[in-house]
Amino acid sequence: MFSFLAITALISPGVSSFVLPSHSRTSKRWIPHEPRATHTNLHAAATIEHAWSPQDLTRDNAGFQPIPHDDHIKKYQENPELWPVEFFLVPYRRCPIDTHTKTNGKDAETETQILVRKSANGTSRFGLGTGVPATRWMLSTAQVPLGYQWTEPAVAIESNDFPEFPKTNSEDEHEPEPTRSWTYRKIRLRKDAFHDSHSGRDNGEADTPDFQDPELEEFAKQIRDHLKIELSKTSREKTGKVDQQWEAIRTSLVQTILESDNSVAAIQGSLRMSGLFEKRKGDAAARYVDLSNGPDPVELARSVKIYTMFPQMPDPMPLPSTSPEDLKEEIVCRPSNMAKAGRDPHRDEHGRTYTHISTSNVSNTIHGVYLTLDATDYLPAPAPAGLNDENYGDDEEAVPPALDLFGTKTIEREWKSLQELKVIDSETNKISTEDPKPTFISGFIARQLVNDNVIKIGGKINE
């Protein structure tokens, strides 16, 4: 998924903004299995609200089936090295909405907007487009993507470890032969991923473009160093607290990632994909957000939140040979297939809430490391109608492009209000109760950032 800021090796952009090839084209048409009805608590599923808060995915939920001991999330917790980890940047701004006030524009009331891009895979309308995997799963027979390498020693997991693996009824003589499991291996971002042709060595690529940006790399190093300090504080607070074991293990894993030599590249990649620090056209020295007089790496590190994304996956999961066309068709047909099977589109059979709709990429169950930037002062919004104030900016200048991780392709970005993204209710100005998943991949995450007072809403720009 080449689509948004966290760590993964994607098959198509579901959580991240960058796509990793894991399903190859084939002339054989994929015929999906009949959807399985696995959820027994349909009454509870029908009455739940569209709400999410950070959840311990190994804890049983009342009224739902117990989580089995061989559940893949429990395996991840027993061996945290199995977890994919991804870094995200969440840029937002407060935009004036008072169209009647003729006084200083800085006193105008505001709405909060997030910088997003259109989702590329059809699972939702918008995504952050800043996710960069530090580690992620990759089909073991696939070619490692540019800038990545296999982990050494090898870390692997079988497809039949996932609950969506195709199952057959062994007692039915008319059932086809059981599906053979396939293997995923862990990949990691190279520490020299942005240092010219070195990043392409594992891909068989001869020469690759030079993406070196010493200034941006140094900024990423500063963020990494301050993140280590922030997470050290968090770790001490959770040590020995039984009810916070889930968070403690997750924090410890991210600390390990930050100690790794590739963490700076992952943070730098996220900054790059945001487009905020891209050079402006016609002026190679000017960035959209100037690093010399821009965000404080200390404040960015203090904004850090770690959330676990738990996706609604296709069930059964498509085979590795499934064509891209059939993968897209599965996404389109999934709602009707789930309805036919009686499958809850919002929770799994164990009562665990889905954070987003995913492609068949198993790496979309991730620990996401979210850094949030208030870009109001760096990319000011245009003045409200009737106001002419030099404190406001040109709207075109306030919308940097979305970039892919290593290529030169730019993708259009746009500012969308929290109301448009189903984060905030347009009438009550409180947390929305609508389902954000079809609209915004990170909708539940953004709601939690508002709840945690990381994303500011309302008020005046100078507050």
Total E-strand runs: 18
Order of helices and strands: EEHHEEEEEEEHHHEEHEEHEEEEEH
Please state the CA-atom Rg, rounded to the nearest Å. 22 Å
Q: Measure the end-to-end span.
A: 38 Å
Largest sheet: 10 strands, mixed
Residues in helix, %: 10-25%
Low-confidence stretches: 1-47, 99-105, 197-201
Shape: globular
Query: How much strand?
Result: 15-25%
Judged by helices, strands and strand pairing, the structural class is alpha+beta
Provide a count of the helices.
8
Q: Give the integer mean of the pLDDT values.
A: 82
Q: How many domains, in number, for the residues?
A: 1
Describe the protein's architecture and organization.
With 463 residues, the chain is of the alpha+beta class. β13 (311-312), α7 (324-341) and β14 form a beta-alpha-beta unit. The protein has helices spanning 42-47, 72-78, 214-238, 245-259, 263-274, 297-302, 324-341, 443-451; strands at 2-3, 17-18, 85-96, 110-118, 126-127, 132-139, 148-150, 156-158, 183-189, 279-280, 283-287, 305-309, 311-312, 356-357, 366-374, 402-403, 410-411, 413-417. The two termini are 38 Å apart. It has one domain (2-451). The relative contact order is 0.24. α3 (214-238) runs antiparallel to α4 and α3 packs across α5 (263-274). Strands 3, 4, 5, 6, 7, 8, 9, 12, 15 and 18 form a ten-stranded mixed β-sheet that branches. Strands 1-2 form a two-stranded antiparallel sheet. The chain is built from eight helices and 18 strands. It is globular.
